Amino acid sequence: MRKRRHLFTFWLELAVALGLITIIGLPNFAPGTAQGNTTLTVSAAVSLTNALNEIAPLYRQSRPNVTVRYNFAGSGALQQQIENGASVDVFISAAEKQMDALQRKNLLVAGTRRNLLTNRLVLIVPANAAGITNLRSLSHGPVKRIAIAEPRSVPAGQYAEQALRKQGLWDALKPKFVLANNVRQVLQFVESGNVQAGLVYATDARTTNQVKVVQTIPANLHDPIVYPIAVIKTSKAPAIAKTFAQFLSGNVARNVFTKYGFGTAYTNFRF
């Protein structure tokens, strides 16, 4: 009998010991310990469409729990959306003006604003067109329709206006203007042949073989073309938004931007 009690006690103590080991090990597998999925909303100038779409899956390789959702439009329209309370984590503008406006309204996370990229303004015509070689050619009689982005809200249009004014052409060409909602729409107008010329970014012109560049506009005719980036203060995931902004300044993203013709304004920044 005593021997049986000893055996029972032995097996009971062993079971308890095993139970304690299991209990101690449970936290490693407890539900909820894995990092949850996050969706970042990035509002970006439409001229960044091709490059950013290529970058998203590259970022996801290092952050598989983060999905990047883009909202592409003219920078002025994106600025207004943010001012009106749109849910945005990161904003990339095609000019400083729109970012300045958000900063004045205290809508940026302090210390996250950086100049990310640069670009050039170019004059394009349909691929099979002839006779237009530079800005001054636009004043010639046969040229009837010229596409530019809306200068009141779109940076590409603002740069175009600056260049044409410095050349003394703005007022004379005004009756010929076809205004577009964004720079990609300008590109579409020229591709279709609905206009005889247009002013877009060099990176836009590289996305199609249906147009050709006849002049790269001298940089001294307009403000520097820079693309500032910042995290928006109302972001629900500011820490992750910062990692995305930092990724865009690193080597992997920079190679993609260079492929599409962008220049780099700042590299490998940290917050």
Describe the model.
The protein has 271 residues and is of the alpha/beta class. It has 2 domains: 38-118 and 226-264, D-Maltodextrin-Binding Protein, domain 2 (3-Layer(aba) Sandwich); 121-221, D-Maltodextrin-Binding Protein, domain 2 (3-Layer(aba) Sandwich), CATH 3.40.190. Helices cover 39% and strands 21% of the residues. The protein has 10 helices and 11 strands. It has helices spanning 2-25, 49-62, 75-83, 96-104, 155-166, 170-173, 183-192, 202-205, 238-248, 251-259; strands spanning 38-45, 66-73, 90-92, 114-118, 121-126, 146-149, 177-180, 197-201, 211-216, 226-231, 263-264. The strands form 2 sheets. A 6-stranded mixed sheet has the order 2-1-3-10-4-11. A 5-stranded mixed sheet has the order 7-6-8-5-9, with helices on both faces. Helix 2 links the parallel strand 1 (38-45) and strand 2. Helix 3 (75-83) runs parallel beside helix 4. The protein is elongated and about 60 Å long. It starts with a helix and ends in a 7-residue tail after the last strand. 36% of the residues are buried.
